[in-house]
Design a protein that fits this description.
Elements lengths: L40 E4 L6 H14 L6 E5 L5 H14 L4 E6 L4 H9 L3 E5 L8 E7 L8 H12 L15 E3 L4 H10 L10 E5 L9 H7 L3 E5 L18 H10 L3 E5 L6 E5 L4 E2 L1 H14 L7 E5 L4 H9 L3 E5 L3 H11 L3 E3 L5 E3 L8 H14 L4 H6 L7 E7 L3 H5 L5 H14 L3 E7 L5 E8 L2 H19 L3
Parallel strand pairs: 2-3, 2-4, 3-6, 7-8, 7-9, 12-13, 12-14
Antiparallel strand pairs: 1-5, 4-5, 9-10, 10-11, 14-15, 16-18, 17-18
Length: 480
């Protein structure tokens, strides 16, 4: 027996994922499927994410994808990636879909390939910035955008076995083709994105996080003439995101300072986001990247309605500085899908998240850490400045503190507003800051965490209220 897989879903081989009779494809998972988060399905392998779930998810994606054509699958470097990819492939081919596998690649390579080839959709096997024992599945439609909510709900209904869900049944088995060569098209698109700007004489440190960025990150920077030092530069599924990358910037800061580099860039596990470090070791986050890139577009007259799109997590100092430039900042819920939706509805040219997930309408509207790093490096170097020079003239962020509170009970976490003591504590904090700060409490869509963020003009107020609210959440949401 395979642990975590129902008897009727046992597999002859993990490599081929060949199902035994009775045929499991299309049978409901019921309560075993917890639903889609803000970025697909994500969780611990063998618990929330299993071969059974992946196989059924592949099958229902094959049923729900509207367009004809192949389905593109990529993965990051996690050890569970080949297993999950094989299970997805079994489900997709059972639904009659042709599958193109890219192998190790950054997440944006999947939607980029979908758009360039006219594929029916794409799947990325990754848990992004999560630790190695997690994995996940991101789903993209034929446009290259994250799958619309309506289609997500149709897949979820099929997985749960809801009555009335259309099921065409098993089709003629689809074919599987390994297509790693398609990554060259993605790599070429990255280099073309800088419009001929070069990086000769620019010393850059790259933290590739043992993950997806190792597929081509070093190559594109060297091809554009940069002098590159690489940290964590080979794929390693046991070490991805561990003490490195965009969630652990200390190694990058130390390397930039010790090498005298002009700047450094750190990516997360699937390379769809990036944070930077200037030559003095200071962190440049997604808000500052939006301000830098947005300012360049604004000065070139190439930013529609002077508008940027950010999330509720973006710094108040950023918002006020951008407004002082005559710009408009629109805020959305946390999640690149919400930023993407607002950009499309408003016709905005640039948007993103404080975490370094940046979307550009000109470059396909996919969060792409490598593309963002190339834009920052080429804009700074092409202007004859350093990233430290630019940061000195940027906005002054308000002090901000984010505290993560572990709340295992999903219902309590998602419905925290119904906890009267916590809601009253939030109201008390907002009254005390009297318009000079703000509180944001939200449940993570991918982890068992309640995120408590406090921002204010004074650091003391931030520290006090963040700890007070986090303690209230811990006490009342985790009470027996």
């Amino acid at each position: 027996m395979v642990p975590g897989v129902p008897r009727n879903l046992q597999l002859v081989s993990a490599a081929g994922m060949t199902p035994m009779a009775p045929h499991p494809i299309g049978q409901p998972l019921g309560e075993a499927f917890a639903g889609f988060g803000t970025d697909g399905v994500r969780g611990r392998v063998g618990d929330q994410v299993t071969p059974a779930l992946a196989m059924q998810l592949g099958y229902w994606c094959g049923q729900v994808f509207k367009a004809d054509g192949p389905v593109v699958i990529g993965m990051d470097s996690r050890c569970s990636g080949p297993m999950i990819t094989a299970a997805l492939t079994a489900g997709l081919t059972a639904a009659g879909r042709q599958v193109w596998t890219l192998g190790l690649c950054p997440t944006p390579a999947v939607p980029g390939t979908v758009r360039r080839t006219g594929a029916a959709g794409g799947l990325m096997v990754s848990a992004s910035h999560n630790p190695p024992h997690d994995n996940g599945i991101k789903i993209f439609g034929a446009s290259g955008a994250k799958l619309p909510k309506r289609q997500q709900e149709a897949i979820a209904a099929g997985l749960r076995g809801d009555p009335g869900v259309p099921d065409r049944g098993l089709a003629a088995t689809g074919m599987v083709h390994e297509r790693p060569g398609l990554l060259l098209d993605y790599q070429n698109a990255l280099m073309q994105s800088v419009a001929g700007r070069r990086l000769e004489g620019c010393r850059i440190v790259l933290d590739l996080c043992w993950g997806s960025a190792t597929a081509c990150g070093e190559a594109v920077f060297r091809e554009l003439g940069a002098t590159v030092q690489v940290l964590h530069g080979t794929p390693n599924g046991d070490r991805i995101n561990m003490g490195c990358g965009s969630t652990h910037l200390e190694p990058l800061q130390q390397a930039v300072l010790s090498s005298g580099a002009t700047m450094g860039f750190a990516f997360d596990g699937d390379a769809d986001r990036m944070l930077a470090v200037d030559g003095r070791g200071r962190i440049v986050d997604g808000d500052q990247i939006l301000y830098l890139w947005g300012s360049a577009l604004l000065e070139a007259g190439d930013l529609p309605e002077r508008r940027l799109v950010a999330t509720v997590m973006s710094n108040l100092g950023f918002e006020r500085a951008w407004q002082a430039r005559g710009g408009v900042l629109e805020r959305t819920a946390v999640g690149d899908q919400y930023v993407h939706q607002a950009m499309e509805e408003l016709g905005a040219g640039l948007g993103g998240e404080q975490s370094g997930h940046i979307l550009s309408a000109r470059h396909g509207m996919s969060g792409d850490g490598l593309l963002t790093a190339l834009q920052v490096a080429s804009l700074i170097h092409g202007g004859g400045a350093t990233l430290a020079d630019w940061l000195d003239t940027s906005f002054q962020p308000y002090p901000q503190l984010l505290v993560n509170v572990t709340v295992p009970d999903r219902q309590r976490r998602q419905q925290w507003q119904q906890c009267e003591p916590l809601r009253q504590a939030v109201e008390q904090a907002e009254v005390a800051m009297a318009g000079q700060g703000r509180v944001l409490v939200r449940a993570s869509g991918t982890e068992p965490l309640l995120r408590v963020m406090v921002e204010a003009a004074e650091q003391a107020a931030v520290d006090h209220w963040a700890q007070t609210l986090a303690a209230a959440a811990e006490q009342h949401l985790n009470a027996a």
